[in-house]
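At your convenience, could you comment on the folded chain following this short note?
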Amino acid sequence: MAYAHTNSKGTTYYLHSKGKMFFFSREVKEGALDAVPAGYTVVEMKTGMLALKKVQAEEAAAETPADVQS
């Protein structure tokens, strides 16, 4: 199943890849991805469009809590 993300305006977009290029579309098309690629995060622009942003090493460490207790 394609990765879906709903923006703040309530529109759902699906993540696709064409080679090394990533893009979001309102419809599931050829090249749909099941998950956000490792090292990337989804960001929303002021217009509501979605984009992928590379995660910096420091941000990646902050997103992965090392001291989580079960």
Summary: The chain has one helix and five strands. The first helix runs from residue 57 to 63. The mean pLDDT is 87. The chain has one domain: 4-60.
